[in-house]
């Protein structure tokens, strides 16, 4: 496929900076003298940023001052401002930016100071990298003359972030600052999205120069590869081959991942699935790619996926992976994943994901919406049709036979019941953020999601404390939407400072803490695999009164729910409350997450628990030492 | 299998760190690494020798292609190529052996850069296998004080410049 470049293009023309999309229209501020800090703020505004998240400090003061002046000027002109939202900790700022990005599809922005400010964002940056979330983080840095001297609040940001971000820039030439910030946005949102860090020494922020209003840095290799993502089309032969495989299949299944959501391909996926009657399972990150209430939706697969979803994967004879990467939470044993699939097709934007974990027979690397549109059109043109009624009826039966279930007669409040009741009100329309652990998996299992970008969760990194700041960011991106954070007592503690951020900014966020006195998921593993030794996961002796904490943070609604009979009434009033509301639910501390596919186990060894039937009797075996994660 | 991977890298701060960081993060080995400017001051050429099964090498190439500063990557071992390595050795030799060592070096295609018996410095540019043989032969004849190797450099045996392998 590779072409020999012409001789004159030996290094793909590195010397020429590219112009932005509309070079003919001059930026109204082009030619104006500005400080570096003012240029940063102007580029943020030009990129359509509506909210900045960040915490101040010495090395970022010039930029914070520029944000202040920018907003003051906008206020005078009666134009929309770019509010700077201050968290309790920079990790909060990073996750707010990530929540903003996940819920809106736009690039999230955090601006923090040097040293600890920057290092506190490492976790959200790695989290966003692992989940392919577009974000730009601007860090103050000590002045250029002090770099490398172990100066006050100095940290080697470019080395640290180089290992966790999609890209990092250290701006040493102030003349390149403007183009660098603009380029950071381009990198964050293009290809496989991800976080980009721009480290800006304080003297570069204070430098004065001429604002150009256009121009990006040369990235010949990256841009060339991006270009191929849009120009490499599925040709007729490849499309025919795909439909041959689909035609030979009796039991095809789509396995859709986060790439469908991040690549804005949900509509095209739905159209493709409908056009050829192919049922869909999604990964944790792919939730919302199809409407979970749709008749073709087989909900989530994987370690804690629906039993019927996992059985569908076991039974399918043609698996179509779309924007999914056979992660270990999905394909714990790649060799035994989809064991009856005679063929696997894989669509992804990232070539490195093809054949990385599981060998596939057909693949396409490129933008998903275009690829799915082309394939759908091709199939329709060739009049492709197969009667899938037998397979779909079979899946319908499985869906009811192996449905999620729990002890409905229990005296204690079961977490599933609480989520079902919330879902009855929200009907798949609300934005749901979560922490990490049991409550996260229950939310994935019991909530409906009619659209993409309603489900905000830390999938790959599994970062406890994600939920609350992500919900705050999402609320800023969608001021009129109902945003609920379903959290655990342990997860919410991780960024509990952000409880106050929600009330400070008067956000109508609904915060639910499912309290089971500890790290429920850890306890579940300890019960299954460590003979019940609850090492460091029990919090019954902790003294925190969440209600008093919420009241202290200004929540006008702060209620503890501990009687099952009160659940529907309290949930109704909680969700209807105007303004930030806090609900602590004392749940059955022994409630587990089922189904569960043990680490390194195939789906047929799935443990379904006491309330979901299993196709096969399964002995619980502790995982091998190398599979202990 | 041993593979030689050639990379054109934008000459940006931290670019090389991102290449080597990728290898350590993803658990790949670097057997040798050589970096220097090209005739374009904005581009460096990296020659990297690594070992791995075909799938691993393909992953390495694919992951390298995701780095923003990478302009082009090619696994040169996939095609015909020329490989060269420079070795500079400092030897300590008995004065009576000087002539025979000099004779060996010249026969092997090397050169004597510094003839002093206390610090006898020789060089050879050859393939990795020849360099290994050269070092081992001289080790058998004299005391080797220092071994300085450049790591492999390689270029494809064809008319075109490095391109992105797909």
Shape of chain B: elongated
Shape assignment of chain A: globular
Structural domain count of chain A: 3
Share of helix of chain B, binned: 25-40%
Report helical residue fraction of chain A.
Answer: 25-40%
Total strands of chain A: the figure is 20
Provide the CATH topology of the largest domain in chain B: Alpha-Beta Plaits
Ranges of chain B where pLDDT stays below 50 over 5 or more residues in a row are: none
- Average predicted local confidence, pLDDT of chain B: 93
What is the mean predicted local confidence, pLDDT of chain A?
Answer: 95
What is the CATH C-level name of the largest domain in chain A?
Alpha Beta
Number of domains of chain B: 2
CATH superfamily of the largest domain in chain A: Thiamin diphosphate (ThDP)-binding fold, Pyr/PP domains
Structural class of chain B: alpha+beta
Biggest sheet overview of chain A:
6 strands, parallel
Write the CATH fold name of the largest domain in chain A: Rossmann fold
């Amino acid at each position: 496929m590779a072409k020999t470049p012409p001789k004159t293009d030996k290094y793909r023309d590195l010397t020429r900076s590219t112009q932005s999309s509309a070079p003919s229209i001059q930026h109204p501020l082009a030619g104006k003298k500005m400080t570096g800090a003012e240029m940063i703020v102007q580029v943020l505004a030009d990129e359509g940023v509506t909210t900045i998240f960040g915490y101040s400090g010495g090395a970022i003061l010039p930029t914070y001052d520029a944000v202040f002046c920018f907003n003051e000027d906008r206020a005078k002109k009666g134009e929309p401002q770019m509010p700077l939202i201050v968290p309790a900790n920079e990790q909060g700022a990073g996750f707010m930016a990530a929540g903003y990005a996940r819920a809106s599809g736009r690039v999230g922005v955090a601006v923090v100071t040097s040293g600890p400010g920057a290092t506190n964002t490492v976790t959200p940056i790695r989290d966003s990298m692992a989940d392919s979330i577009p974000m730009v983080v601007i860090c103050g840095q000590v002045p250029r003359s002090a770099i490398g001297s172990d100066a006050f609040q100095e940290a080697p940001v470019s080395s640290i972030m180089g290992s966790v971000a999609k890209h990092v820039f250290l701006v040493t030439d102030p003349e390149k600052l403007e183009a660098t910030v603009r380029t950071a946005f381009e990198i964050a949102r293009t290809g496989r999205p991800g976080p980009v860090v721009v480290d800006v020494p304080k003297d570069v922020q204070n430098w004065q120069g001429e604002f150009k209003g256009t121009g990006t840095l040369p990235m010949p290799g990256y841009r060339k590869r991006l270009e191929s993502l849009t120009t490499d089309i599925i040709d007729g032969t490849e499309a025919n081959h795909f439909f041959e495989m689909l035609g030979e299949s009796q039991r095809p299944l789509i396995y859709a991942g986060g790439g469908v959501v991040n690549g804005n391909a949900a509509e095209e996926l739905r159209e493709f699935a409908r056009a050829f009657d192919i049922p869909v399972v999604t990964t944790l990150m792919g939730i919302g790619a199809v409407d979970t209430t749709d008749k073709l939706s087989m909900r989530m697969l994987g370690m804690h996926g629906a039993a019927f979803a996992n059985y569908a994967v076991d039974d399918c004879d043609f698996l179509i992976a779309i924007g999914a990467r056979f992660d270990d939470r999905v394909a714990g044993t790649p060799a035994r994943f989809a064991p009856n699939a005679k063929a696997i097709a894989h669509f992804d934007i990232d070539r490195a994901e093809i054949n990385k974990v599981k060998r596939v027979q057909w693949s396409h690397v490129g933008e998903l919406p275009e690829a799915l549109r082309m394939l759908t059109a091709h199939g329709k043109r060739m009049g492709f049709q197969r009667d899938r009624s037998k397979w779909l009826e079979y899946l319908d039966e499985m869906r009811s036979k192996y449905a999620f279930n729990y002890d409905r007669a229990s005296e204690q409040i079961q977490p599933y019941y609480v989520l079902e009741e919330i879902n009855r009100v929200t009907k798949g329309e609300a934005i749901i953020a979560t922490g990490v652990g049991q409550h996260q998996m229950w939310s994935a299992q019991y909530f409906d999601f009619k659209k993409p970008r309603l489900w905000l969760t830390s999938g790959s990194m599994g970062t406890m404390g994600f939920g609350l700041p992500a919900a705050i960011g999402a609320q800023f991106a969608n001021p009129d939407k109902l945003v609920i954070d379903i959290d655990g007592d342990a997860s919410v503690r991780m960024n509990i400072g952000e409880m106050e951020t929600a009330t400070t900014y008067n956000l109508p966020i609904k915060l639910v803490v499912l309290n089971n006195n500890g790290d429920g998921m850890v306890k579940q593993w300890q019960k299954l695999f460590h003979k019940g030794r609850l090492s460091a996961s029990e919090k019954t002796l902790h003294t925190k009164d969440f209600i008093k904490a919420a009241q202290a943070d200004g929540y006008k609604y702060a209620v503890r729910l501990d009687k099952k009979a009160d659940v529907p009434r309290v949930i109704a009033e909680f969700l209807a409350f105007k303004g930030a509301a806090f609900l602590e639910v004392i749940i059955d501390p022994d409630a587990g997450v089922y189904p569960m596919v043990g680490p390194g186990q195939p789906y047929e060894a799935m443990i379904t628990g006491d309330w979901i039937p299993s196709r096969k009797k399964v002995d619980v075996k502790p995982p091998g030492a190398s599979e202990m994660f | 299998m041993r593979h030689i991977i050639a990379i054109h890298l934008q000459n940006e701060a931290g670019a090389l760190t991102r290449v080597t960081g990728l290898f350590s993060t993803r658990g790949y080995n670097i057997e040798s690494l050589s970096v220097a400017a090209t005739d374009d001051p904005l581009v460096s050429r990296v020659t990297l020798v690594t070992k791995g099964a075909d799938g691993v090498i393909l992953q390495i190439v694919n992951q390298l292609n995701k780095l923003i500063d990478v302009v082009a990557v090619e696994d040169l071992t996939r095609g015909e190529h020329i490989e060269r390595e420079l070795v500079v050795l400092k030897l300590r030799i008995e004065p009576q052996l000087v002539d025979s060592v000099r004779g060996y070096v010249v026969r092997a295609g090397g050169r004597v850069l510094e003839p002093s018996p206390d610090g006898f410095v020789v060089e050879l540019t050859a393939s990795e296998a020849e360099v290994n043989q050269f070092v081992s032969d001289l080790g058998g004849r004299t005391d080797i004080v220092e071994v300085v190797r450049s790591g492999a450099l390689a270029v494809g045996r064809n008319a075109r410049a490095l391109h992105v392998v797909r």
